[in-house]
Each structure stands twice: as structure tokens, then as C-alpha cells.
Amino acid sequence: DMQFADEAFDVLGFSADQKYDVFKNTACMMHMGNMTKDFVPVGKEEQAEVKNESNSEKVATLMGIDCEWMITYFCKPKLKVGTEWVNKGSSCSQAANSVAGIARAIYERTFRIVVDKCNETLIDPTMKKVQY
Fold it and tell me: Of 3, 23, 32, which is closest to residue 97 (Cα–Cα)?
């Protein structure tokens, strides 16, 4: 499947960097799906913590951000209350929903990039018309 996708991207005129970015975003989304299962409740308030940071580290590396910072903002997001910022503890389901929401946003943007490139290629009058 990966080979078919790579060949299709070549036909559509994707550069090597564009293909790499699409594959990197896809890998990031898949690891984020695994990351949603890594949250465990801690304490009597059942605040979310990450039990295994391996998926979190992979996601952070792929996204180019600090792993500890990412985990902190999924588990203890900052909210503005009046004029001050406070940290609010998230439950496991809230933290998992935050990760899933970011993954959906990455998917939507990646899909839009692919569709825009397909449309750009199909409209390009200089390309040789080939029937498959």
C-alpha cells in the first residue's frame, strides 16, 4: 500500500519533501491514536497522567515539540480565568479527547493539502494528458 501511495504521489507531482511531510503527519496521527490509550487516573480526583511515554515521545519527535510540554498541556491545560491563567487537571477521557481533537485537525489539514495538490495537478494545462 505504501508503494502504491508513493507512486500515486509521484504521478500527481508531489515533491520528495511533500511526500515525506504527508507520511510524517500520517505516522503522527497513528501514534496519537495509540497515545489516547496511555492515560491513567492518578489520585482521588482521577487526574490524567501518562503511564507509558513511548507513544508521546514519538508524537513529540514527529511534531518537533518537547514531549514533557505536550504531556503537560494534555493533562493540565491552562485556562484563563478573569485576568489570570490557571492549570486545570483533566480526566483521562478529557485528555484522550484533546489528543483525538488535535489528531483530527492534523488529518483535516493534511487531507486538504493532498486534495489541493491533486486539483492543482489536474488543472495544470502544461501537463501531458495520460489516460490510465
Answer: 32
Nearest Cα neighbor of 36 from 90, 94, 77, 96 is: 96
Residue 103 CA to residue 71 CA, distance in Å, equals 15
Q: Cα–Cα distance between 25 and 55 in angstroms, integer? A: 14
Q: Which three cell numbers stand for residue 83?
A: 485576568
Q: At 128, list the grid cell.
A: 501531458
Q: Please give the chain's pLDDT, 132 residues, in tens.
A: 889 989 999 988 899 999 999 999 999 999 999 999 999 999 888 889 999 899 999 999 999 999 999 999 999 999 889 899 998 889 999 999 999 999 999 999 999 999 998 888 877 677 666 655
Residue with cell 487537571: 89
Helix, strand, coil % over all residues of the chain, rounded to 5: 60, 10, 25
